[in-house]
Design a protein that fits this description.
heterodimer; A: 269 residues; 2 domains; 6-stranded mixed beta sheet; 5-stranded antiparallel beta sheet; 10 helices; 21% strand; B: 318 residues; 12 helices; 67% helix
Chain lengths: 269, 318
């Protein structure tokens, strides 16, 4: 039994023709009368790391949640690769390649690191009730292929030795890496990363930054919500600045630093 | 063979089936089904009214619906089917938007409501008095009172329990089971990885309900009687306690829990001399069961046989 429906998307509204891989048009969302996101229109260009920065309460995580499908906008549209995904549920967005990570660590604590990665895959015949009942002969080949793929990722990110550790026993930085690797198991078209450096040891921050750079160089598009400005400066071009639920500027961090209203709202505030 | 020992053996098989079914939902997928006993009861009632002749057959001393007088195995198969079908609308409603703790409360309330409905609508399933004289499933082939029949029934009950255990193990140690465990650990993260969390939870709720129904059918086929007093909501708490003690997520742990708590614990207390006012001993039993849950959650939260860590060997191509 499956409650899934086929992914259907339309591409008739104006945002579909915008240049980015992901475009939003006038997104709005409030909480108890406060505009957490107000008229947010952004465009994320493919193959780049776009930064989304702003002071606490600026609305960054609200926008990210709307993009990921875990929060419904009150108004506005979201287009991904030309298709309107505004009303698409989160799990279906992930299936079409728009994958998020969370601000707080969201590892599957009582699954091993390797299992965390395997759990992300959509391409296993044993991941259905009847497929599972047919036994390993039916799904074993898929499982072996995915284990090999997951091990290649673990090797790339220097986590091979942790393969059989429970994810809940890892350090904060290692958990972040597991989340990124888990997202990569879905072969995403775009990653939405919500403060992946939060609570991570400074040495590991640079490892994660290296990893994001290598993913970008491989053609992956990333929208990065981040507080650490040196990291943003190193990785992100362009950077979108939000304050009080609105977008107040966009450009490189060095040009944004020259704009007084942005300095006032965030950079030296 | 002593009737007492046969009864113990059948109850063990039934409790093991129920614990494994609930463990699939609660231990593996994280669905806290505090209304589980409803599905065991459904299986028992369905098997009973399909095995019984029309309610006019015994001078109308009891009232119930159907009374189709079907031979084995049809009442048991129908028990599985109807219990699963009952789980579907309940799962669709309860598992959709509520938080896990509110799901648990909703399910326990559903169980209580069902008990009240059955108790107060006598023509349906004979109310509080319950249905009696349920025919023994294999009575057409041999006398249901002799030792051979007792051995046969124990054999069938254990065969059902083993099948349920193999079924649950096959599901749990597959990619499907891994996704259920991922949902248990973090629903939002599983959804963000493209898993349809709601659909998965409904499916495992139906599967667990159907298995619970089988356990009820096996039980009523042996004791020949079923009434609301047999499936009050605290019965689910005993099964939950068994899983916590045995080991959440490990089906062998669930079987051990069935041996230790619903069977072992309740049988041991039979041999304690009555003391104090009437009802004091059962009350103390509940205090001890509650303490058992708290004690294990505090000192050994993974249970006696914890969920095993999955370690993968070298792959053929890697």
């Amino acid at each position: 039994m499956s409650l899934d429906r086929p992914v259907t998307v339309s591409s008739s509204s104006p945002g579909a023709k915008a240049p980015g891989i992901l475009n939003t048009t006038a997104l709005r969302r409030g909480f108890e009368g406060v505009h957490a996101a107000d008229d947010v229109s952004i465009s994320v260009r493919p193959g780049r790391i776009t930064g989304l920065i702003g002071p606490n309460g600026a609305g960054k995580s609200t926008v990210l949640a709307m993009l990921a499908g875990t929060l419904a906008p009150e108004s506005g549209r979201i287009h991904f690769e030309g298709s309107d995904i505004t009303s698409m549920p989160a799990y279906r967005r992930a299936r079409i390649g728009l994958v998020r990570t969370f601000q707080m660590s969201a590892e599957f604590a009582r699954l091993t690191v390797l299992e965390n990665l395997l759990a992300a895959s959509q391409m296993n015949r044993g991941d259905s009730l009847f497929g599972a009942l047919l036994g390993r002969r039916y799904w074993g080949a898929d499982e072996d292929r995915l284990v090999a793929e997951a091990r290649a990722l673990l090797s790339r990110f220097g986590m091979t030795a942790k393969e059989s550790d429970y994810a809940g026993d890892l350090s904060g930085g290692q958990k972040r890496l597991v989340e990124v690797m888990r997202a990569l198991m879905l072969h995403p078209r775009m990653l939405l990363l919500d403060e992946p450096m939060a609570g991570v040891h400074p040495n590991v921050v640079h490892e994660i930054a290296d990893c994001l750079e290598s993913l970008r160089d491989g053609g992956l598009t990333i929208l990065l919500v981040e507080h650490e400005l040196p990291i943003v400066e190193r990785l992100c071009d362009p950077v979108i600045v939000m304050a009080q639920g609105r977008v107040i500027g966009e450009g490189t961090l060095s040009t944004l630093r020259l704009q007084p209203e942005i300095l006032e709202a965030y950079l030296v505030g | 063979m002593s009737y007492y020992l046969v009864t113990i053996a059948v109850y063990f098989a039934v409790d093991a089936m129920a614990c494994v079914a609930l463990n699939l939902q609660f231990g593996v997928a994280g669905v806290i089904n505090f209304g589980f006993i409803l599905f065991q009861a459904t299986g028992a009632y369905v098997a009973a009214v399909l095995s019984l002749p029309k309610d006019t057959a015994h001078n109308g001393f009891q009232q119930y619906v159907l009374g189709l007088h079907l031979p084995f195995p049809y009442p048991w198969l129908a028990a599985i089917l109807v219990s699963g079908l009952l789980a579907l609308p309940i799962g669709l409603v309860v598992l959709r938007r509520l938080r896990n703790d509110l799901q648990a409360i909703s399910l326990i309330v559903t169980s209580v409501i069902a008990t009240l409905i059955v108790t107060n609508s006598t023509p349906f399933l004979n109310g509080a008095a319950g249905v009696a004289l349920v025919p023994a499933p294999f009575a057409g082939h041999m006398s249901p009172t002799g030792t051979p029949y007792e051995w046969l029934y124990i054999g069938v009950a254990f065969a059902c329990a083993v099948l349920v255990l193999l079924f649950a193990t096959r599901l749990t140690y597959s990619p499907y089971g891994r996704t259920l465990r991922a949902i248990r650990e973090n629903e939002d993260a599983a959804g963000a990885l493209g898993k349809h969390v709601y659909a998965r939870k409904v499916v495992i709720f139906v599967v667990g309900g159907a298995l619970g129904g089988l356990s009820g059918a096996v039980l009523v086929g042996y004791i020949g009687f079923w009434a609301p007093s047999a499936w009050l909501y605290p019965e689910t708490i005993i099964l939950v306690a068994a899983i916590i003690v045995g080991g959440r997520g490990n089906h062998l742990g669930a079987v051990l829990g069935a041996l230790l708590v619903p069977l072992g614990f309740e049988e041991v207390t039979r041999f304690i001399p009555q003391f104090g006012t009437s009802g004091l001993t059962p009350a103390i039993e509940w205090v001890v069961i509650g303490s058992l849950i708290l004690g294990f959650l505090w000192f050994r939260p993974r249970g006696v046989i914890p969920e095993t860590r999955r370690v993968f060997g070298p792959t053929r191509d890697g």
